[in-house]
């Protein structure tokens, strides 16, 4: 009996030590929140941990962590798909985590509002130029009259301060300036339409 107690007494410290070693070999893995627009997965693990990201059965990214890690993916993660992160390190128990993708909606209304503000600013900028061009247009048309003795031509020439060519050049330069200042409107209209379309898609998707 004494011999049994002696053996048990000697074994207890080793059993305790073994238990401590087992608990110290558990991997620590913490993943920061991931949304459907992110192209990087970040988190914290036991130093030296190998991290593998799976989409279903397919490996899409690998990384060795130095404690804190940042893993890039080629495209944002789809909230409808299943992703798992496997953490492994020699001598440690492997750990697999299913990722939860948070849906982060794009505020297209704000983007459309910004574009509308730009469109309004451009229109306000060219409005007085358009008004000036509209006022000059009848005079320019009258100066194009082939009969310089006509009353229309003479009245127009008077409004042009006696210099028909200079007046027409001023008008043409004004029209060119309006065209240049208006050139951003086309792309802005297209971008606004794209955002409207994407906004509708997002509503249907989520």
- Roughly what fraction of the amino acids lie in strands? 15-25%
Cα distance, first to last residue? Answer: 72 Å
Shape: rod-shaped
How do the helices and strands follow one another from N- to C-terminus?
HEEEEEEEEEHHHH
Helical content (DSSP H or I, runs of 4+): 40-55%
Low-confidence stretches: 6-23
Classify the secondary structure makeup into a structural class.
alpha+beta
The rounded Rg comes to: 37 Å
* Order of strands in the sheet with most strands: 5-4-7-8
Main sheet specs? 4 strands, antiparallel
**Number of DSSP strand runs:** 9
The number of helices is 5
Mean of all residue-level pLDDT scores: 87
Secondary-structure blueprint of this entry?
Elements: H1 2-24, E1 29-31, E2 34-35, E3 40-45, E4 50-55, E5 58-64, E6 68-72, E7 83-88, E8 95-98, E9 101-102, H2 108-143, H3 151-159, H4 164-182, H5 185-205
Helix pairs in contact: 2-3, 2-4, 2-5
Labels describing this entry:
single chain; 206 residues; alpha+beta; four-stranded antiparallel beta sheet; three-stranded antiparallel beta sheet; rod-shaped
Account of the protein in words:
- The radius of gyration is 37 Å and the shape is rod-shaped.
- Helix content is 52%, strand content 20%.
- The protein has helices at residues 2-24, 108-143, 151-159, 164-182, 185-205, and strands spanning 29-31, 34-35, 40-45, 50-55, 58-64, 68-72, 83-88, 95-98, 101-102.
- With 206 residues, the chain is α+β, with helices and mostly antiparallel strands.
């Amino acid at each position: 009996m004494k011999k049994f107690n002696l053996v048990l007494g000697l074994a207890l410290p080793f059993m305790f030590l073994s238990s401590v070693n087992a608990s110290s070999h558990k991997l620590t893995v913490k993943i920061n929140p991931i949304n459907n627009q992110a192209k990087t997965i970040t988190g914290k693990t036991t130093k030296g941990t190998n991290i593998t990201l799976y989409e279903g059965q397919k490996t899409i990214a690998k990384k060795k962590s130095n404690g804190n890690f940042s893993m890039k993916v080629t495209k944002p993660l789809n909230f409808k798909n299943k992703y798992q992160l496997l953490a492994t390190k020699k001598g440690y128990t492997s750990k697999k985590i299913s990722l939860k993708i948070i849906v982060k909606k794009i505020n297209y209304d704000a983007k459309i509002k910004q574009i509308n503000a730009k469109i309004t600013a451009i229109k306000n900028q060219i409005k007085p130029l358009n008004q000036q061009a509209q006022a000059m247009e009848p005079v320019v048309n009258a100066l194009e009259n082939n009969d310089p003795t006509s009353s229309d031509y003479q009245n127009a020439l008077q409004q042009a301060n006696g210099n028909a060519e200079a007046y027409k050049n001023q008008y043409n330069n004004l029209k060119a300036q309006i065209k240049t200042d208006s050139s951003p409107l086309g792309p802005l209209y297209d971008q606004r339409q794209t955002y409207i379309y994407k906004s509708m898609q997002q509503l249907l998707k989520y």
